[in-house]
Design brief:
This is Sporulation protein. By secondary structure, the chain is mainly alpha-helical. The chain is built from 5 helices and no strands. It has one domain. The longest helix is centred in the middle third of the chain and has 15 residues.
Length: 87
C-alpha cells in the first residue's frame, strides 16, 4: 500500500501505524486461551488507541474472549469498549 495512505490514517486517527503493524504481527501466533496473553493484548490495544480500559472492562473482555471463544481483534475489543461508554 501507499505510504501516504498510512500517513493519512495516522493524521486522522492519531494512531501510529507502525505500532498497529507490530501488534498485528504479534497476534499471529498468540494463544488467546491464555489469560496473560489476552490481558497483554487488551492493554496494548488500549495504549495504541489512547483509550483507557478499566479493570472491570478488562476483566469482561478477557472473560468474553477466553470463555465465550470470541475471536480477538481490534473490532471485538473496540465494540466492547464502545458498548461500555454508550456509543
Amino acid at each position: 500500500m501507499d505510504n501516504q495512505f498510512f500517513k493519512n490514517i495516522e493524521k486522522k486517527t492519531g494512531v501510529n501505524m507502525k505500532d498497529v503493524f507490530e501488534l498485528a504481527n504479534s497476534l499471529q501466533n498468540a494463544d488467546f486461551r491464555d489469560e496473560k496473553t489476552v490481558r497483554h493484548v487488551i492493554r496494548r490495544v488500549s495504549q495504541i488507541a489512547n483509550k483507557p480500559v478499566s479493570k472491570e472492562m478488562e476483566d469482561k473482555i478477557v472473560r468474553t474472549i477466553i470463555k465465550d471463544g470470541k475471536k480477538l481483534d481490534f473490532n471485538t475489543i473496540s465494540q466492547m469498549m464502545n458498548k461500555k461508554s454508550g456509543k
